[in-house]
Predict the structure.
Amino acid sequence: MGRNRRKYDRRSRNRGIHSEKGVFSIVCSILSLLILSAAVIYSVHHRGNADVYAGSVGLVGVVFSLMGFGGGITGLLEEGTDRIFCIIGLSINLLLILVMAGLIISSI
């Protein structure tokens, strides 16, 4: 009876099953990073006198970060999937949200 029982191996338990919401979180963080980088480059190119378009592009980047943050949290709550993408996406999105909040607060 003991022969049929598989040994518990933590590393191979979830191998190959990544959370779709975790992948969504990383994709949103990459899009948000690209959008926010474009807004910063546009603002630097205009020597800080960028019009309202740079601000609206920055807010779109924050919306993508918030969506990715939510996807990362819901991906962490899934059972039976690998959570590494959720953790990476969640941390990048949180960092981007904090950077944008700091930029908004410091400009006011």
Remarks:
- DSSP finds four helices and no strands in the chain.
- The two ends are 70 Å apart (CA to CA).
